[in-house]
Amino acid sequence: MAKILRSESSLLHRQNAIGRELSRRKITRLLVWAVAAALMGWGGLHAFRHPGPGGFVAAAFVLVLAIGYEVHLREIARESRNLEGGRRGEQKMAELLAERLADDHVILNDLELRVAHERAQIDHLVIAPSGIYVVESKFWAGKLTGDVCDAQWTQRKSNGSTRSVKSPVQQVERQRRMFITLLAAKVPEDRIHALAVFTHPAAELHIANAKDRVFRIPDAIRFINDRCFEPPVLSPAEVMELAEQINRGQA
Fold it and tell me: Which pTM value belongs to this model?
């Protein structure tokens, strides 16, 4: 069983923050609409006493703000649902990596990587004697079509709706290049791998040229385990030293 040096926290913190805001929405909604009604009443009275557009403009502005708050509540409620799905997918990925990889592997979840002016959020990082594995996990359902070279893919959901989504292959490849820069030849480039992993059971993948780039969870774990038969590039002590160094950088 692999060692977990760092667990996911950023999605949970954001979800908890949204939960706190949504738990207060009954009171805040009442206050927002009470203030809006009072100001619209004042605007109407002002327009009655002083004919002109000023009062109506003020009332319309307040109404727009109140409606905007309602839209904001719907957006963060939708974000909370998406975060819950993402957290489930990342947790499942982290648990299976730990369970099915050898004990000389170290896993760091939810990393923020900074190299010069570039920043990236990494879902999972596996450091092993065989190399480094940068993993981007996506909890996306539906039919996904595209090419690993495309910046945008198409996602068709079960209800028939479609949307364009950013390619996680290009996202994780950028993270891989950042690690190549960060490690400064401590690990050969061909031993630093980028894996885009789809964790939703209803994901249907139709991605061209996806070999060794796009995975489901079991295939990603098999890919990492298969590399164990290659000559090691890190000793177990170096694996732990590098993992602890990267983890300290998160403080």
Answer: 0.74
